[in-house]
What does this fold into?
Amino acid sequence: MTAFRYPTILQKTIKELTSEESYREVCHTHYYEHPMPSSDKLAEAVNLFREIIFPGYFGDSPVRSESINYYVGVNTERLFEVLNTQILAGLCFACDANDEEALINNKKNAYDLAVKFIAQLPEIRRLLITDVDVAFVGDPAAKSKGEVIFCYPAIRAISNYRMAHALLSIGVPIIPRIISEMAHSETGIDIHPQAQIDESFTIDHGTGVVIGATSIIGKNVKLFQGVTLGAKSFPLDDDGNPIKGIARHPIVEDNVVIYAQATILGRITIGKGSVVGGNVWVTNTIKPDSKIVQFKPRDLLYSEGGGI
It folds into this structure.
């Protein structure tokens, strides 16, 4: 029996891929006992979060008044366990050395952060109830709030956002971004977890919506599909690198409606009560109670031959 030999091309490829010059920029050093973030475990955490926030809608166990304490208790305890491990993974992901003392501190911090997140669940539920209510009231096609909770991609994306934002607000690294990008992949709605979004928020249809990191959105705001709350080109430092950490996305005040495919760019303010029409490009602040629509040219005159 002839022993297997790597073909020359395999040997050459492996040598190139394992050269430090090749992998230096894309390799994450994994230190001993440092857990890595897990997409599967975070998917479990998101599903548990939904079961707790909307009991009876998700999961396999039926919910009745006499069993809800047990149902919510078991799921909350499991969510705490999963998040404790994943928050630790997020903290360790930022470590640049195999430091035993730092690992011990990260374990303590992860536990404390998981506790802080669990304490926010009642407020997150309150916010999501307002999001469900406004989506139901604002959509004549919705037959029930249950349909909104089960079926609407906006509620799925906003749920992930509210979970991710709560984690980010207490100082959890990288895990919030993974959770928000899970919803982005699933729904086509891209909400950065750093964005600040008040209650009664909804997105009609949803696909293609982008909400940048430093966006601030007030109460009772409604977006339609394809809306972008984005930034203009970044200012550069003396070395030509983009300056990060500056407020560069729009502020949308209370009771604003922004229709499909509108693009709002830069640190501008859309005043409360305003309506922004579809397919418009807005780069300047809009006063309260304004109505912005596309420019409508006067009717064109055509000759009998069909020319203008």
Notes: The chain is about 40% helix and 10% strand.
